[in-house]
Amino acid sequence: MKKAALIFLLTAVAAASDAPSTPAVTPAAPAEPAVSFRRDVMPVFFRAGCNVGGCHGSARGKDGFRLSLFGFDPAGDYFRLTQQIVGRRVDLAVPEQSLVLMKATGKVPHTGGELFKKDSEYYNAILKWIEAGAPDDTTDIAMPTAISIEPDKIVFEAKSDPKRQIKVLAKFSDGKTQDVSKLAVFVASNKAVADISVDGLVTAGKRGDTYVFARFNKFTVGAEVIVLPKEGNYQWSGVTPANYIDERVYDKLQKLQMNPSERCSDEQFVRRVYLDIIFPAQWDPKLGIHVT
pLDDT averaged over the chain? Predict the structure, then answer.
């Protein structure tokens, strides 16, 4: 009985050794997301200033080419880029020769000059889209639903670093959040108090309170910036508020380490109101808002 069991075991081992081996299966690498005209290309036009009111985003366009203001009509922009002048603005045969890239990099005459470098991520985003056949978005893609700015309040104290970096986060319809700081447009409300670079670096100026803004897609958010004086001997004058408006004003003055001015005369008041009327806030075409 033992001999029969041993023979059976040896036979089974021999059969297993003669069977063809099954190769190990390596999981396939996740497919790279498809290039999206609305998600990947349109933000580049916005960042470069192509679709603002003073450029191709005007009602009549510029130099024979028109984009929708701030990219509000991506379907129309896609048509004008790919089909209005076939093979010129977008060249599928030789993507690098596409006019949209040649003009943006200053390789051919362009009223707007050079907008970005050939080795930049902005150039590569458009090039990648053209190399993929310049596809339109045939299915629903995740689009921004809101943006936020971090930090949303900056206080520059006497001994603090006079520069502060901010970033812009976009929340998309698929629930994901993405840092879009390199695609956002930044503007300062009062550059004398605080300025902001194209990359979101805030630099403190003279004492005061102002806002810097960031815009991405159709959303605009602001961050309050307070610049305190270098002197450290501030003391509140002790004036008592007469109403809730005074409470708000005095609270802000104390944050700025300032005391309220003495009561002005009627002539001074009229002059100040007059100046406010003749020098209103200016419309900023990049942000679509009024700034001082």
Answer: 85
Q: Domains in the chain and their CATH numbers? A: 37-131 (no CATH), 144-230 (2.60.40.1080), 244-277 (no CATH)
CA-atom Rg of the chain in angstroms? 30
pLDDT digits (tens, 9 = 90+) for 153-168: 999 987 778 899 999 9
Task: Report the candidate in 171, 178, 164, 114 with the shortest Cα–Cα distance to residue 144.
Answer: 171
Nearest to 145 by CA among 175, 173, 167: 173
Query: Before 30, cis peptide (omega within 30)?
Result: no
pTM for this structure? 0.72
- Identify the pLDDT of residue 86: 85
pLDDT at 5 over 70: no
Question: Among candidates 57, 55, 53, 87, which has minimal Cα distance to 73?
Answer: 57
* Rounded CA separation 58/64 (Å): 11
